[in-house]
Design a protein that fits this description.
By secondary structure, this protein is of the alpha/beta class. The protein folds into 4 domains: 1-34, no CATH class; 38-241, Rossmann fold (3-Layer(aba) Sandwich), CATH 3.40.50.720; 251-334, N-(1-d-carboxylethyl)-l-norvaline Dehydrogenase, domain 2; 336-489, NAD(P)-binding Rossmann-like Domain (Rossmann fold), CATH 3.40.50.720. Helices cover 39% and strands 11% of the residues. The protein has 17 helices and 15 strands. The strands form 3 sheets. Strands 3-2-1-4-5-6-7-8 form an 8-stranded mixed beta sheet, with helices on both faces. A 5-stranded parallel beta sheet has the order 10-9-13-14-15, covered by helices on one side. Helix 3 packs parallel to helix 9 and helix 10 (243-274) packs across helix 12 (309-320). The termini are far apart.
């Protein structure tokens, strides 16, 4: 090491015969100190797993991630605006279906609603919802609120990673200005990262640590910090060249699924018009071993990503003056499916002499997919709203969703047990989400009519008014009223 003249002078003051006071020691240490490297220091702490990780938003994305870091030996602090959720986690109880109390208790997470503890975190990971606004526009209020709450507690040497799905440019438009406002230079004093979640709610094995993780940084130093941050927690890292590229990759992943589901939902409507079983068509097509990937139709899209992301991409495309007709069309097709399901239900009831208005209809499954308790964007909510507008006496059964608050025109309801007498009293049973644990054999035995949107029953009829052949009924002599197929495809 070559010392400056100031450093040498300071050290001379420590020679024998000179004062060895603490002040001189401090001066010498400061004079000899090499220029600090916050990125290198943070990478070292992350690799040693001594860096404290802060996770903002402890929902279906944030909580599994926080647990993963804690289980790897990192000290972890969680933040959530819901006091009940923060209190439960701090007490070692899980607020989410699919994550056990024992796992939360063993992790020893700290959890707060106040962001003051964020100053003690070396890396802050934002995992908050990014839904749609009333006009299908991006609603980034939760991202803004998280950064605003963090602002007073940002400091030199920290990293901020955004995991929420969003349009290209969000990290640059929101995270970078927040760091600049705090007086921090991105890539030098603090580090901005985008690493989108790839969570699969309802998957008992989870995805954190098993699925490759995208990571991008605002600068090379930011990328280096991001790779160190996620290196231990991720199954494999996929570095991406820029923040915007990583944001677009995430949208593309989800829009790919939404577009293909839109295609198969249109195929279902065409198949029904032709009198064909769409499930048979898909199964036969899936025997082709190349150039084909099977997708299944349903009552619409739900969840925090798939029904939302096409509109995020389309919104950004409009801002850029680029057409996105294909993406927007898929969104419209999927959005129209609850109304199509209702038309199939109406036709099936009409064929049996029961008008939809005033009918008793039991929905099976309120969550947006099997195995979860999440009702965000669930097509069941739109179906309930449409039924309420037609004075239908609607009820539902979902073992994972015990109650539903009234909202957006849908009534407040509680899950009803599948009592045989109750099922038999319904004019129709509408399968929206086949939750695990439901006895669909018993359901069929007691229901008068089942409208199946998910392919639960392989023999479901395509024609809504299809009468069973006389010789299959086993009732002699022939009754005056026709006997209809008990299950209709929708």
């Amino acid at each position: 090491m070559t010392l400056s003249s100031d450093s040498a002078a300071t050290l001379q003051g420590l020679m024998p015969g000179r004062s060895d006071s603490l002040d001189l020691l401090r001066q010498a240490a400061e004079a000899m100190r090499l220029p600090d490297d916050p990125a290198a220091e943070l990478v070292t702490r992350l690799e040693a797993r001594t860096a404290r990780i802060g996770v903002v938003g402890l929902g279906y994305v944030g909580l599994p991630l926080a647990l993963r870091f804690a289980e790897l030996g990192f000290p972890v602090t969680g933040f959530d605006t819901d006091p009940a959720k923060a209190e439960a986690i701090a007490a070692g109880r899980s607020p989410l279906h699919g994550i056990t109390d024992a796992r939360v208790a063993a992790a020893g997470l700290l959890a707060y609603t106040d962001m003051a503890a964020a100053r003690g975190c070396d890396a802050l990971i934002i995992c908050v919802p990014t839904p749609l606004g009333p006009h299908k526009e991006p609603e980034l209020g939760a991202v803004r609120a998280a950064l605003s709450a963090l602002a007073p507690h940002l400091r030199h040497g920290q990293a901020i990673a955004l995991e929420s799905t969003t349009y290209p440019g969000t990290t640059e438009e929101f995270v970078l200005p927040a760091l600049a406002t705090a007086g921090l230079t991105v890539g030098k004093d603090a580090f901005a990262i985008y690493s989108p979640e790839r969570e699969d709610p309802g998957n008992p094995k989870g995805t954190v640590g098993r699925v490759p993780k995208l990571v991008a940084g605002a600068t090379p130093a930011c990328l280096a910090v991001g790779k160190a941050l996620y290196g231990a927690a991720a199954g494999a890292l996929v570095p991406v060249s820029s923040l915007r590229a990583a944001e677009l990759v995430k949208l593309y992943e989800n829009v790919f699924r939404a577009v293909n589901i839109g295609l198969v939902n249109e195929l279902k409507r065409i198949s029904h018009a032709l009198g064909l079983d769409v499930q048979e068509v898909i199964d036969a097509a899936a025997t082709k071993p190349f150039g084909f990937m099977p997708f299944r139709p349903g009552p619409g899209l739900g969840g925090h990503c798939i029904p939302v992301d096409p509109y995020y991409l389309a919104w950004k495309a409009r801002e850029l003056g680029v057409p996105s007709d294909f993406v927007e069309l898929a969104g419209r097709v999927n959005d129209a499916m609850p109304a199509y399901v209702l038309s199939r239900l109406r036709d099936a009831l009409d064929a049996r002499g029961t008008p939809l208005r005033g009918a008793r209809v039991l929905l099976i499954g309120l969550a947006y997919k099997p195995g979860v308790a999440d009702t965000r964007e669930s097509p069941a909510l739109e179906i309930l709203r449409l039924l309420a507008g037609r004075s239908v006496q609607a009820a539902y059964h979902d073992p994972l969703v015990p109650r539903l608050a009234a909202a957006h025109g849908a009534p407040g309801l509680e899950s009803q047990p599948l009592d045989p007498a109750f099922v038999a009293a319904q004019d129709a049973v509408l399968i929206v989400t086949p939750q695990p644990g439901i006895d669909f054999t018993a359901l069929r035995h007691h229901a008068r009519l089942i409208v199946d949107t998910r392919g639960v029953y392989p023999d479901a009829a395509v024609e809504t008014g299809l009468a069973l052949p006389f010789e299959t009924r086993g009732d002699f002599p022939r009754p005056a009223e026709p006997a209809y197929h008990p299950v209709i495809q929708a």
